[in-house]
Structure formats: C-alpha cells, structure tokens
Amino acid sequence: MPGALPDELRAELISFRRDLHMHPELGNCEFRTTAALKARLERAGLKPRVLAIGTGLICDIGTGSAGEGEPVPAIPATPARGMLALRADIDALPIPDTKSVPYRSTVANRAHACGHDVHTTVVLGAGLVLAGLAREGLLPQPVRLIFQPAEEVLPGGAPDAIESGVLEGVGRIVGVHCDPRVEVGRIGLRPGPITSACDRLEVSLDGAGGHTARPHLTTDLVTAAAKVATEVPALLARRVDARAGLALTWGRLEAGHACNVIPQHAELSGTVRCLDLPAWRAAPDLVHAAIDEVATLHRAKSQINYIRGVPPVVNEPAATELLRDAMAARLGQHSIEDTEQSLGGEDFSWYLEHVPGAMARLGVRAVHAVGEAARRDLHCGDFDVDEGAIKVGVELFTAAALLDGHRL
Predict the structure, then answer these.
(1) What is the pLDDT of residue 370?
(2) How would you label 281-313 residue by residue, b for 16+ Cβ within 10 Å and e otherwise?
(3) Beta carbons of 384 and 376 less than 8 angstroms apart
C-alpha cells in the first residue's frame, strides 16, 4: 500500500516535534505553533487557512492546491459522503517540564505533557505524505487536516473550531491520543465510548453563622458543607443507573477561619465524570436537585455553577473498523489491542456530535521500558514519548485515508 513515511521526512518530523516541545503554548495562544504549521504546509504547496478565532488552522488536500514542483490535481469529492478529516490538538499544559533532554521546554511552567506535539506532528506528516500521493494521482478522495487549539480549556476548542466551519464538507473524522500504557508500534481501539464526559462543579453555601457554643441558633455551614460533600455523591449513585458511571468527586472544600466561629460562607468544587452519553445530558439537573435537597435539609442556601465540559468520545463502529483495517494493513493485526474506556475527557467528542468518527490510542511507551520510564503518565512534568510513534501515527492516517477513499 502506498503512503509509507520516507526516512527523510521522518527525520524532519522528529525535529518539528522537538521544536514544538521546546516552545509549548497554552490554549488560544498557539500563535507560534500555528505559524510553524502554516509555513510548512505552504512550502508543500498547500493552502492552509487560519481559524477565525486566531489560532489553529485547517488545510484541504486534493482540492486543487499547488504542490512542490508540480500541481496537486483536484479530486472529485463524493457529496453524499464528504471528505475524511484528520484532527490534531495543538495546545500545551500550564505545568513545568521536569525532563533532562535537549528538547526540554524553554518556557517556564509550560509543557507538552499530554502529547499534543505528537498529535500535531502526526497530522502534519500525514498531510505531507497525502499531498505527495495526490500529485501522483493516488489519493482517491480529498482529505482535510484540522489543527485545533485549546483542547485543555473547558469546554475545549472544538466548539469554536466547529463554529469556524471546520466540519463543512466532512463526512467522517478520526484522531489519535498518546497513551503511555501502550507500547510504541501498537494502537488501542474500542468501538463505542472510549473516554468519559467531564464537567466542573462549583458550589457556594451561605447561612447565618455564629458561636460554636450555640450551633442550634445558626446555619451550621461546616456540617452542611460536609453533608453536601458526602451525601450528594451517594444520592447520585442511587438515582442513576450504575452502568452509566456517573461520579461526582470533590477536589476543594473551604469553610471558616476560626475554631470557635461557625462561618457564614462555604465553598466546594469538583468534577462530574460520566461514561454514558444520555446520563451526561441529564447530569446537571440531577446534580442541582441533589445539592439543593441536602443544603435545604441543613438550612443552607446554595448557589450552583455547573460548568459543561465535554461529552464522552463515542467511537462509531465503522470508523473504528477503518482505523483497525488501516493499522492491520500497515503493521499487522498483532499491532492492535483492545483498550478500556478511560475517565479522562477529550473534546474530540464535540466533533462526534456532528459527524461520525473514531479516536485511537497511539502507543508511545518504549518497548521493554522499565522503572520511571514505564510509569510516566499524561499530565506529568516528566512525560515523554518514544518518537517511533510519529511514523506509526502518520502511516495509520495515510492508510485510513486511502482505505476510506477506496470504500466509497
């Protein structure tokens, strides 16, 4: 099958990834990253378009753009089907890079600790390979590259990208996410839900405080806050099917400043995660009702700020099979493993509210890794990847684009 990654381009992509790693940018501030992508795609004769929000871009291949030295011919699209989109997220995290490598972050308290630099490089590499195939007349269907900002900022940059029109003309979308639990050279796949929904919750409780000697004359807000913290998750567990996996977990509780004073104000904040899409849609009303019920019982007034995050990523079976067949064609069936649904959130899910698609877990752990290297996880300052994953991701996407086009 055509679409293999040439060694020369592989070396360039590793260098490109390391440059991104050294210059991480937070969500909606990815100006340098956007400029670097735009320049490289234009050098390939393509016509990338920066999103209306100012960062991120899209680039179509096979719609008549010029190529390096030769024109890239336009490929007739199938209107009823639409083109395949390859999506990458381009932002970094607000944490320090603690690795000791030549390409360590040069920006204080900023790091590509979730692998977005790899996702970006993989989609760029796939685009460059597919542009070459289009010049040779070997690309059967136009393909769109989506480089999306602000995945790490709730509710993610995907809604803004969609509003900018990135899905116009798209019939199916695929993506990858680095997984340090999967060895390089392999991918993890799962039809149906593969990530969790993730929302944020902020609760304020107010009432008449007073002396701890006379709690019966007050609204005992410390007790009320403690009851909300413990009883609301328990109530939700009895009001939602357990298979939905709806879980409220608190990360902050603040109340009072003195041991003999009952405070007038308390605050709690946490996250709501859910494995099931219908339950996620019902979650805000259920959470509001449970909090109000417990707060009222303890004579506290509640103010609730339920912040929508992202729904679960629900992989379409046909798109999952496309990725499975593409990976098998490149590296064989042994390179594919089943993966479990995680409790992490991913704003790729917003695209799937509009078009079918799937996300694969891209193995980035070095083969036979031991010690700290084997325990590295996402969102940690020492996170790094085996850069052999770049070639795997590029060829997964090029094979998917070719197979998808031939199945029209």
Answers:
(1) 65
(2) eebbebbeebbbebbeebebebeeebebbbbbb
(3) yes
Torsion of CA 22, 26, 27, 31, to 10 degrees: -60
Element (H, E) at 176: strand 170-183
Residue 337 has a pLDDT of 98
| Structure token pair of residue 378 | 């996402």
CATH number of the CATH domain containing 267: 3.30.70.360
**Same domain, yes or no, for 173 and 231?**
no
| CA atoms within a 13 Å half-sphere pointing along the CA-CB vector of 308 | 12
Supply the pLDDT for residue 176: 98
What pLDDT is recorded for position 125? Answer: 98
User: How far apart, in Å, do the first and last CA atoms of the chain sit?
Assistant: 18
Element (H, E) at 131: helix 116-135
Sign of CA dihedral 376, 382, 383, 385: negative
Pairing status of strand 336-338 against strand 187-189: parallel
Q: What is the pLDDT of residue 408?
A: 58
Same domain, yes or no: 173 and 120: yes
Question: Distance of CA 197 to CAs 105, 189, 387, Å?
Answer: 30, 18, 29
Cα-based distances in Å from 111 to 9, 22, 96, 233: 25, 8, 6, 33
pLDDT of residue 203: 98
Beta bridge partners, 249, equal: 271
| Regions of the chain with pLDDT less than 70 | 1, 64-80, 369-375, 406-408
Question: Which range marks the domain in which residue 151 is found?
Answer: 7-194+313-406
